[in-house]
From TrEMBL:
Protein name: Homoserine kinase
Gene Ontology biological process: threonine biosynthetic process
Catalytic reactions on record: L-homoserine + ATP = O-phospho-L-homoserine + ADP + H(+)
Pathway the protein takes part in: Amino-acid biosynthesis; L-threonine biosynthesis; L-threonine from L-aspartate: step 4/5
This protein's encoding gene: thrB
Gene Ontology molecular function terms on file: ATP binding; homoserine kinase activity
Organismal lineage: Archaea, Methanobacteriati, Methanobacteriota, Stenosarchaea group, Halobacteria
Residues annotated for ATP binding in this entry: 80-90
UniProt family annotation: Belongs to the GHMP kinase family. Homoserine kinase subfamily.
Keyword Membrane attached: no
PANTHER family per the UniProt record, alphabetical: HOMOSERINE KINASE, HOMOSERINE/4-DIPHOSPHOCYTIDYL-2-C-METHYL-D-ERYTHRITOL KINASE
Alphabetized UniProt keyword annotations: Amino-acid biosynthesis, ATP-binding, Cytoplasm, Kinase, Nucleotide-binding, Threonine biosynthesis, Transferase
Biological source species: Haloferax namakaokahaiae
Subcellular location: Cytoplasm
Enzyme Commission numbers on file: 2.7.1.39
InterPro entries: GHMP_kinase_C_dom (IPR013750), GHMP_kinase_C_sf (IPR036554), GHMP_kinase_N_dom (IPR006204), Homoserine_kinase (IPR000870), Ribosomal_Su5_D2-typ_SF (IPR020568), Ribsml_uS5_D2-typ_fold_subgr (IPR014721)
Length: 293
């Protein structure tokens, strides 16, 4: 048996739609795999009642098929589905790394990114790498047609998860098909600022670079209380706030000394709109880890 822990992730970071991603040091999924004649799936943990165990409908089933590695796969969910924290990516990445080890396929983590992305296609309809790349590789990742680039960085973050659900498919439907050139230039400039901030480990630049006029405003409409939460986080010391992935989680960058205050302010703001929420005081962390044989 091989066991792998894979972290939650946050994609887009505002200005990097379908390109940027970060691994978070918490929460995480744990996936156990054992060789079998055919793939079977068992799911426990948070939100497990909503996750299909049919290999044709589960992300890890797609990964097992892609690697030609049938197994009994047990997923212990720590990342809630439909959270905007890369729940499906955590399972996909963990399964890809575990099955690669179990069957001695010899693929590098970089080579496993497109394999894990096939699992993502089960959920979103498209094989995106913006969540699975950081889940496998850790740090801040840039996934594009040119490949995946990784930056080892350390930025304090708060991920605030409200008790509402936004499906990835619904969040993709609201993304505009066109953008004004002014908004495009604005977003590209902020994406460049965020990237420099990650390289310099500068929370101020990272937060400033999260601003986006194209995708984030459309997705924010799906999150009850988003603007109130955003303003509360900024007032508490956040350097930038955006929708985490498809939502409904809201992600804030901040300095370490402000993280507890920002987390409390975000939860309180959701409470003002009668929405229960929990905040993860986290940071950019490592990728998936094999920790048991």
């Amino acid at each position: 048996m091989v066991t792998v822990r894979a972290p939650a992730t946050s994609a887009n970071l505002g200005s990097g739609f379908d390109v940027f991603g970060v691994a978070l040091d918490r929460p995480a999924d744990v996936v156990h795999v054992e060789k079998a004649d055919r793939t079977t799936i068992e799911v426990t943990g948070v939100g497990s009642q909503y996750i299909p165990t049919d290999p044709n409908r589960n992300v890890v089933g797609a990964v097992a098929e892609e690697l030609d590695a049938p197994a009994h796969i047990r997923i212990d969910k720590g990342v809630r589905p439909s959270s905007g924290l890369g729940s499906s990516a955590a399972s996909s990445a963990a399964a890809a790394l575990a099955l690669n080890e179990l069957y001695d396929r010899g693929l590098s983590r970089e080579e496993l990114v497109p394999v894990a992305a096939e699992g993502e296609a089960v959920v979103s309809g498209e094989a995106h790498a913006d969540n699975v790349a950081p889940a496998l590789l850790g740090g801040f990742t840039v996934a594009s047609a040119a490949g995946v680039t990784t930056v080892d960085t350390d930025i304090p973050l708060v991920a605030c998860l409200p008790e509402i659900a936004v499906s990835t498919r619904d969040a993709r439907r609201v993304v505009p098909n066109r953008a004004d050139i002014e908004d495009l230039v604005h977003t590209v400039g902020h994406a460049a600022t965020l990237t420099v901030g990650m390289c310099r480990r500068d929370p101020e630049l990272v937060g400033a670079g999260m601003d986006d006029r194209i995708v984030t405003p459309a997705r924010a409409e799906l999150i009850n209380g988003y603007e109130l939460v955003r303003e509360a986080a900024l007032d508490a010391g956040a350097t930038g706030v955006t929708v985490s992935g498809a939502g409904p989680s809201v992600l804030a960058a901040c300095r370490p000394e402000h993280r507890t205050r920002v987390a409390a302010a975000m939860v309180a703001a959701f409470d003002e709109t009668n929405v229960d929420a929990r905040a993860y005081k986290t940071r950019v962390g490592n990728g998936a880890e094999i920790f048991e044989f």
